[in-house]
Design a protein that fits this description.
Radius of gyration of chain A: 22 Å
Order of helices and strands of chain B: EHHHHHHHHHHHHHHHH
Shape of chain B: globular
Largest sheet of chain B: none
Largest sheet of chain A: none
Shape of chain A: elongated
Oligomer: heterodimer
Number of helices of chain A: 7
CATH architecture of one domain in chain B: Up-down Bundle
CATH topology of one domain in chain B: Cytochrome C Oxidase, Chain A
Distance between the termini of chain A: 52 Å
Distance between the termini of chain B: 46 Å
Structural class of chain A: mainly alpha
Helix content of chain B: 55-70%
Chain lengths: 200, 541
């Protein structure tokens, strides 16, 4: 927090103004993820209620195959681990290793999305066919949106960790840590989604 | 871990326009943002109030002669949405929260100033969108609740704009909530303990928890609703196998806490105002804190009391009746504490105090009808009648709006360094209080006798009582005039107030009025007893 009246003084005492306070950006992010999690909770609650009270009409098709989503679960779990590796490498100041691990993570994310699209195109039902079909697409679509966003952010921070010129170093790890937390969150949501949509 | 504030922040701050122009800029100063919220909210209040007057004019006669039925439905939809999402929620949270919370925690700004500015600047465009939705063909006419199947079978272009606007406002609300939680928990000045915070901080902490936990559910629900409208899915459309009750559950999971999002901050504000003007410590600080948190927890598990007639099973009715009745306990504790704060105090009767006392009277009345409405047999009798309208307005107008006015009278000297005219203030209070009670008290009778709400026409036997109600509404509309005159005259040639006209002890008064850009000239003061009135050292003069 700075106590300055004019911009002149800022230039003069640039080194003095940077007083320190606790970093609460991570705290803000966690609060946001709780809010985001509540959106998913709403969707899950709706789906489970439909499951409990709304029977599937006669002749309606709502069948899911397990292989692709199982593969997707493994992809995301592995990607969480590779992201963790990236953070570890940055702590040891090995920026090029971090970049490599981040790119692997992004690649896994992209593969996940491709598999998801492949599943969409091969399902025997469409968005408006019946209630459960709609809920399936809404839930996985909303999650897929999160994965897309996460993958984009991973690509951005992997560019920012490039050795020497990069903005993210082991002195400034927040962007990496923030995206990592978000990625683990998206991962956790997928596991819940997988259990509720495919296994129950 | 620590981070250094980059000096760009301070640079942009000091380069920002001065004077009134700064209220039209992307300012990062929490005080400017607070005032922006207040003025923006008040402008929408005027629009919403005009719509309310139109509704009361229509209801002065039993036939729909002032406007056609569908226009009536559109007007009441817009009135409800504007008043809730653009006036009460942004003002009682955003305006006073942004202005006061950094002072109360001893900080120079909110935790995330940029996020704060973004949260405010989402409001004007989405508000304009909402108003514009009235003018497209097929404006929203399903009420502020947008219940399907009504909202998916009526003309839809307006409904979609309505959904988009409410989604943006919800986003703004969530950003604000995150900011308040981080500011109150993380940004307190060293040495300031949680249990020493002024009560408004606790109220805002509770409110923000509710915002963060429940608003996203509304967002999800509205996304599904818009799918139903645009993509013809069947989430809430029974014809396609959907389930309308699921919408109601999800909607009320947000919208019941939303009532607490609207009144908890008012509870906090009145706890700041009463001790100052009665020169006594706030009675029962600890019980106040626990009752706020009790209301937060209970507020999340009572939503289905809005749905007793939606085919809810008996066990659900029982649970939600009991849970709702329990909320009366912490709320009652707070009211006893306020009355006990006044008891034996050296009370000064001024506009701020009058509006606060008006709040206590109105809210107790609204609270009692609330407990009555929680009882299933009674609720089934008066469901969707004017009794509900009366109850709701006693809470939200008689409660929160009274406190908004009270707070404006209380903190006007802080913001401008000028005193407001007490004479005009008392006129404003008298007309508002009489007009409000004249408008809404008779509606209890109307509801008990079976007049349904949200219908432009009614049985002619109700005409006389409706006309009384409309006269009350007219008085409420008139009461805005002395208020606005007071504001403009006081800004122009009000008496100088000095830094602390009320001799208050809460931290915002311990700096100059109006405060400097970063709140304090030097270190922020450590206020361990924000309500330490009546001790020898603190006595007036």
């Amino acid at each position: 927090m700075t106590t300055l009246d004019s911009s002149k003084e800022i230039k003069k005492n640039k080194s003095e103004v940077s007083q320190h306070h606790e970093d609460f950006r991570m705290f803000g992010l966690i609060t946001f993820l709780i809010a985001d999690g509540m959106t998913f909770a709403g969707f899950f609650a709706a789906y489970l209620t439909y499951k409990a009270v709304n029977p599937l009409p006669d002749g309606a098709i709502y069948e899911l195959e397990l292989p692709i989503p199982t593969l997707n679960t493994i992809l995301l779990l592995v990607s969480s681990a590779t992201f963790h590796k990236a953070g570890k490498a940055l702590l040891k100041n090995k920026n090029s290793d971090t970049q490599k691990w981040l790119l692997v993570t992004a690649l896994l994310g992209i593969t996940f999305l491709i598999c998801q699209l492949f599943e969409y195109f091969n399902l025997p039902f469409g968005l408006t066919d019946n209630l459960f079909a709609s809920t399936f697409y809404a839930l996985t679509g909303f999650h897929g949106l999160h994965v897309t966003l996460g993958t984009l952010m991973i690509l951005i921070i992997s560019w920012q960790t490039r050795p020497k010129e990069g903005r993210i170093t082991n002195q400034n790890m927040f962007p990496l840590e923030a995206v990592e937390l978000y990625w683990h969150f998206v991962d956790g949501i997928w596991v819940i989604l997988f259990i509720i949509l495919y296994l129950l | 871990m620590t981070i250094s504030i980059d000096s760009k922040d301070s640079n942009t701050k000091s380069l920002q326009p001065k004077g009134w122009l700064r209220y039209f800029s992307f300012s990062l100063d929490h005080k400017v943002i607070g005032i922006q919220y207040l003025i923006c909210g008040f402008l929408f209040y005027l629009i919403g109030g005009t719509l309310a007057s139109a509704i009361r004019i229509e209801l002065a006669s039993p036939m729909s002669d002032f406007m056609p039925r569908d226009v009536y439905n559109q007007v009441l939809t817009l009135h409800g949405t504007i008043m809730i999402f653009l006036w009460i929620v942004p003002v009682v949270n955003g305006a006073f929260g942004n202005y006061l919370i950094p002072f109360y925690v001893g900080a120079r700004d909110m935790a995330f100033p940029r996020l704060n500015a973004v949260a405010f600047w989402l409001i004007p465009p989405s508000g304009l969108m909402l108003v514009a939705s009235y003018f497209v063909e097929g404006a929203a006419q399903a009420g502020w609740t947008a219940y399907p199947p009504l909202s998916i079978t009526t003309p839809q272009s307006g409904q979609i704009i309505w959904i988009m606007s409410v989604l943006l406002l919800g986003g703004s609300s969530i950003f604000g909530g995150i900011n308040f939680i981080a500011t109150i928990i993380k940004l307190r000045r060293p040495g300031l303990k949680l249990m020493q915070l002024p009560m408004y901080c606790w109220a805002m902490l509770g409110t923000s928890l509710l915002v963060v936990l429940s608003t996203p559910v509304l967002a999800g629900t509205l996304i599904l609703l818009s799918f139903d409208i645009v993509a013809h899915t069947g989430f809430f459309n029974p014809v396609l196998g959907g389930n309308v009750v699921v919408y109601q559950h999800l909607f009320w999971f947000y919208s019941h806490p939303a009532v607490y999002i609207m009144v908890l901050p008012a509870f906090g504000l009145v706890s700041e105002i009463l001790p100052v003007h009665s020169r006594k410590p706030l009675f029962g600080y600890t019980t106040m804190v626990f009752s706020i948190m009790g209301i937060v927890v209970l507020g999340l598990v009572v939503w289905a009391h809005h749905m007793f007639t939606s085919g809810t099973p008996p066990w659900m009715r029982l649970f939600f009746t009991i849970a709702t009745a329990f909320i009366a306990v912490p709320t009652g504790i707070k009211f006893f504490n306020w009355v006990a704060t006044l008891w034996g105090g050296k009370i000064s009767i001024n506009s701020a105090m009058l509006f606060s006392c008006g709040f206590i009277i109105n809210f107790v009345f609204g609270g009692i009808t609330g407990v009555a409405l929680a009882q299933v047999p009674f609720d089934i009798h008066v469901h969707d009648t004017y009794f509900v309208v009366a109850h709701f307005h006693y809470i939200v107008y008689g409660g929160t709006v009274f406190i908004i006015f009270s707070s404006i009278y209380h903190w006007f000297p802080k913001v401008t360094g000028k005193l407001m005219s007490e004479k005009l203030g008392i006129i404003h209070f008298s007309i508002t209080f009489i007009g409000f009670n004249l408008c809404f008290a008779p509606q209890h009778w109307l509801g008990l006798n079976g007049m349904p709400r949200r219908v432009a026409e009614y049985d002619p036997q109700f005409q006389f009582v409706n006309q009384i109600s409309s006269v009350g509404a007219l008085l409420m509309a008139i009461s805005t005039i002395p208020f606005l005159v007071n504001i403009f005259l006081s800004i122009k040639n009000g008496k100088d107030s000095g830094d602390n006209p009320w001799n208050a002890l809460t931290p915002e008064w311990l700096t100059s009025s109006p405060p400097p850009v970063e709140n304090w000239e030097g270190e922020a003061p450590l206020v361990e007893e924000p309500y330490g009135y009546g001790k020898p050292i603190n006595q007036e003069n």
